[in-house]
Amino acid sequence: MNFDDKAKEWDKDPKRVERARLFAIEIGKMLGENKELNGLEFGSGTGLVSFELTDRFRSITLADSSRGMLEVLEKKIENEKVSIMKPFLVTAPGSLRKLAGFDVIYSLLTLHHIKDIPTLFSELLTILNPGGHLFIGDLFTEDGSFHASDPEFDGHKGFDPDELLKLLKLNGFTNCRSKTLFNIERENNSIVKKYPLFFISAQKKK
């Protein structure tokens, strides 16, 4: 999928907007009343999740590898006059290590695009503050049909959440939990198929 090409139309999909809203609600439940937090959205796209959370953070860095997505994001930030948001272009593996000091990192439907998951988890742990939280929303293991319309897709066909929890623990995270969040419905060959998403929460040791 060429995200640069899709960036200008990204926010016009109501189902995508709703997914972001539901994911943000789940994050809000986990954060409690503390609103003096520094957040990072990894794979932010146009910031749909983060715009739902602007009242929950002191600052939010929005990281993505798509320049097109970040250009749309920058215009949204300017138009809506959101001073707490800062876009960050991910140019190569390890780019996030240039950042630091996050209380919360969250990511929706990005993980299955990342080839080296262990390295990413190690990187995220490094830039999290002690006691900081990680929230991930992504696909359960599927048959590959989720990206059937994208012949260039070379990522993961979803995940077994239990395996991700084990991997998180191996990379230094604690309090690792998962649950089913909601379903994505997509039509393939006139057949509507449901793809369940999980919600994972983990924490860096204090």
Write a short abstract of this structure.
With about 210 residues, the protein is α/β, with parallel strands linked by helices. About 30% of the residues lie in helices and about 30% in strands.
Task: Describe, in plain words, how this protein is organized in 3D.
The protein is α/β, with parallel strands linked by helices. The protein is built from 6 helices and 7 strands. It has a 7-stranded mixed beta sheet with strand order 3-2-1-4-5-7-6. The longest helix is centred in the N-terminal third of the chain and has 18 residues, at 14-31. The protein is globular, with a radius of gyration of 16 Å. The chain starts with a helix and ends with a strand.
State the main characteristics.
globular; 7 strands; seven-stranded mixed beta sheet; 206 residues; 6 helices; 30% helix; alpha/beta; Rossmann fold; 32% strand; single chain
Blueprint (SSEs and pairs):
Blueprint: H1 3-6, H2 14-31, E1 38-42, H3 48-51, E2 59-64, H4 67-80, E3 85-89, E4 102-108, H5 117-127, E5 128-139, H6 161-170, E6 173-188, E7 191-204
Parallel strand pairs: 1-2, 1-4, 2-3, 4-5
Antiparallel strand pairs: 5-7, 6-7
On the 0-100 scale, what is the average pLDDT? Answer: 94
- Count of discrete domains: 1
Please name the CATH topology: Rossmann fold
Q: CATH H level: which superfamily?
A: Vaccinia Virus protein VP39
Secondary structure tally, helices: 6
Distance between the termini: 38 Å
CATH architecture: 3-Layer(aba) Sandwich
Question: Roughly what percent helix?
Answer: 25-40%
Rg estimate, integer Å: 16 Å
Spatial sequence of strands, sheet with the most strands: 3-2-1-4-5-7-6
Largest sheet: 7 strands, mixed
Show unreliable segments: none
* Structural class assignment: alpha/beta
Write the element-wise H/E pattern from the N-terminal end onward.
HHEHEHEEHEHEE
Name of the CATH first level: Alpha Beta
The best one-word shape is globular
Quantity of strands, as a count: 7
